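pinging the channel bc i need a second pair of eyes. not urgent but kinda urgent?? the chain im working w is below, pasted from the shared doc
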Amino acid sequence: MKLFYKPKQTELILINLALTVFCSTSIALILKYNDTKSGNAILLLAGNYLVASVISLFFYYFDKESQASTTSLMISAGFGMIFVLAFFAFTKAVNIAGTALATISSRLSVIVPVILSIILFNESPNIFHLTGFAFTLVTLYFFYLTLRKNKARDISLKDYLYLAAVLLGVGIADFGMKMFEQIRPMQEKSFFLAGIFGFAFIYSFAVHLVQRKSFDSKAFIRGNLLGIPNMFSSFFLIAALSEIKAIIVYPVVNIGIITLTALGAYLIWREKLNPYGIAALILGLLSIVLLSLQE
């Protein structure tokens, strides 16, 4: 008699994809919840990165094949800063544009690795990429119309810059992770991630100390909770990518995250999109799918 059910490969793939979508959606919804409570965004990030670094160190310590190097530590120090800036911009984007549109902005970041690959490695864009570029430009225009028609608040240039920072920051971080896999041993990845999250915690907490604001314990605790899905979203994504091609994983995951985030924000906070926002949502989904495809 079998005591434990061992899932088949297809079921395991679906589980990894579903957990990736669930964890990534949780990140956006926790950020939205913190925003509704006017929680300190910097302390939220600090709490998040503290837990993420502890989990990463746990994997590094118990993985017998893990390795460490000074080079990976130095690289992680730079990426830690990029992660903090991108995540801080994401928290601001949720407040400015709403959960659904902020999530689209973060997912449209797939355009950055594509463009950098074309520039740095002379890769030729295929017809899907060119069409995706066009849809991205139209999506950004509808972003502008959505925010301009927002009667709840006046949108400044700084607000648009936050949305742009999300797209660029997440895109550069993703491209850098791919570059790391090319130039450093995979055995150093756990140490590298622990370094990124560790430095990100140091940077974000240092900003809090410089600001000399009171310690928002509730925001810090919410950050601790945020660190769990933030870490495991990458864990389950990597697991899915080890089983099936990225050309399938990324479109499925991105569509799932955007759809579930928009649905969750509507059900919990009645966060609605105006017609321009709905158009941006649909066009953004098409852009992401096209930019993820290969001939």
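so The radius of gyration is 19 Å. and The mean pLDDT is 88. — does that match what u expected or am i reading it wrong
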